[in-house]
Design brief:
The complex is a heterodimer of chains A (448) and B (293).
Chain A (H helix, E strand, L loop, with lengths): L1 H20 L20 H4 L9 E6 L5 H17 L3 E5 L8 H9 L5 E5 L1 H9 L7 H6 L2 H4 L5 H4 L16 E7 H6 L8 H13 L12 H12 L8 H4 L8 H15 L12 H9 L5 E5 L3 H8 L3 E4 L6 H7 L2 E6 L3 E5 L6 H21 L20 H11 L3 E4 L7 H16 L4 H12 L2
Parallel strand pairs in A: 1-2, 1-3, 7-9
Antiparallel strand pairs in A: 3-8, 4-5, 4-6, 4-7
Chain B lengths: L1 H4 L2 H29 L2 E2 L7 E2 L3 H8 L1 H33 L3 H16 L2 H12 L5 H8 L12 H29 L3 H9 L4 H12 L1 H16 L3 H6 L11 H11 L3 H25 L8
Helix pairs in contact in B: 2-14, 3-14, 4-8, 4-11, 4-13, 5-8, 8-11, 11-14, 13-14
The chains are: A alpha/beta (448), B mainly alpha (293).
Amino acid sequence: MKKFLALFLALVMLTGLAACGGTAETETTPTPAASDDGAEDPAASGGGDGEHEPVTLRIYVRYSDDDTILPYDYAVECLAEDMPWVTLELDPMPADDGVKLKSMVATGDMPDIFGIQGDNLLDSVIQAGAVQDLTDTITENGFFDKVLPAAYSKLYHTDGNIYTLPYTGTEVALLFVNKTIFEENNVEIPRTIDEWISAAETFSAAGITTLPIFGKEQWICNTLYDALVTRYIPDGLSSLHDGSHSIREEGFLKAAQDLEALAAAGAFPDGVTTLNYEQATNLWYNGQSAMFLNGQWEIPTTEQYLGDQADWIPIPAASEEEYETSQHAFIGGTGTAAGLAVCAWSENYDVAVEVACYLAEKYAEYNYTQRGSTTIAVRCDKPMEVEQSAMNAKLSEAIQEATSTTVLAGSGSNVELYTVLGEGTQSLLAGVMTAEDFIESVALVTGD
Amino acid sequence: MKKYLGNKPMILLLIAPTMILITVMVLYPLSILLTKSFTEWDGLNPSTFNGLNNYIRLFKDPIFYTGLKNGAIFALVQTCIQIPVATLLAFAVKDSGRFEKKFFRITYYLPAVLSITVVAQLWLSMYNAEYGLINKLFEALGLDYRQNWLGDGDSGIVAIAIVNTWQYTGYQFILLLSAANSIPEHYFEAAQIDGCSKFKAHLRITLPLMQESYKYCLIIAITGGLNAFATMNIMTGGGPGTSTYTLTYLMYRSAFRVGNYGYGCASAVMLVLQCLIVSIIINRVVARERIIY
């Protein structure tokens, strides 16, 4: 009896475990639904118009701040008018270095359209067969002709094929200044590194933050270093990725020493490496800091908070002469393949490609017509609906005279190099590493 | 009982569910981890065998040694603060009245149930170099001891370890309190009749009889320190630079930032080995004999 009872209990436990593990298989691909009486449910159908079958596409893109939310909402609104049979299901992309996307590819649970950037990640996705070359498709549908030449670096991958449809435009880093703070403290807007250091000392003594860089994010630390490098080596950190320059060259060391000197002069707030974007912008928007460093996408919000008080300036150089020669050397401006990609496994592949092209156009359209940005990736034929701001107009003019560009934030094909640069520049900002040690740590990766 | 224990097929059948769970949840992933540590792998596509390359590179990597050092500091701070403080709190609560017992039991345990993000944000604002409570406190006391707590390479790891220690001391306290409560009261009554003070009773009776609980607490504190990740990820992101990296963080960096999962697996294997060695040593050294009362 006891044996029987024990056997019964064991069987009950096993059945329980099996029940826990087994879940009913669910249908993941939405199908057009019909109500019981046979009439189509408009909400579920996505608004098929008789000519087209209703289609629901899953899209995985950034949707976290004004810079990503507003253009997306605009594009979706336009899509509802122009392609009412298409419904988009948004899956917001986190800032996770592509980890979630990799999991999606590995499990086969892919969105139809997804944002992607970074050579390494794209290489992995291509190798897994999750994306296809779009060159022929976008040439045939006319999208290719609409892409502005300045955005070609985001269009072509290193293998010469096109997998991504650029929608973010040309991105450059800008050094913003609060002119009022400079005037009130009788400090000249710096043109040389020495003037910048001297300004930092003056502001520091007056209890004003000079440059509240959000150093918790390593890309902005890299960007600042890249900016300083471009004063000596115009191609900046990009030249390390393509191997055209060695980290042992004097320009890299001098730029690291400049960064070290700025940190020592108190240019950055205490605890700069734990400062996040919100804390840094809080100081900048509230007129509590003299300078700020970020991409050109910061212009609209900066103007909203600071109005005419704010402007952007070329990065100071070692001397007046070098300032003159390097002032049109841009930080950013080119990039690696990045944009909207279409999953090769999508059941609605053709529609997804069409929609991805449409969205890329509409993102650019929003940035041009509603924000007055001219650094867009896709041509826009509509007129600008807002008056172009002074900073944007200045940027549009300056970018025409660009003498060199870099890949923003020092990113490129070598992710490890980018990571080590980020760690090193963060250490320089915090003053826990010397410029010489920084060069050595990077040389370990570049093999110089 | 003897007849029951002699029934080998039945024993096998009864432990099978647990064994299956352990195999699926622990042993299988561990074997995959070990296999992948000998490969070059991007986490997505098929891996290629590269022998001992990952391990050779690991032993040459300065971040590996930073990780080892920081793991040791983290474990040391946790162990040296958590266990003595939890012991004192457990003894104090054990000897207190019914209401106090209930109140302090909940209060001390409260940080352990808080989200790690909440705790990290709370301490981030306290550690803030410019406006943080701790620096302001020094300022108010007229002490010139303003520190950049998290931005300094050396103090950063200790500052983070203190946060973790604060959060999980309550957990150790609950373990020790339940161990102290489970000691039969007649031992203390006998000691009291013999004129023993409360302090001496705890020293001679409670502490020795709680050896096994201490063993468990020690393993949690040390391996918890070696495994530390979440708090530093939120508070410093491993920075400045690599100064607050641990082995877990190296694993995360290699796999998810650099995309070299094979190398990440090699550092994870070292982490598993480290924890295993520590657990074996503690098991061999502390409370070797089982105490039954």
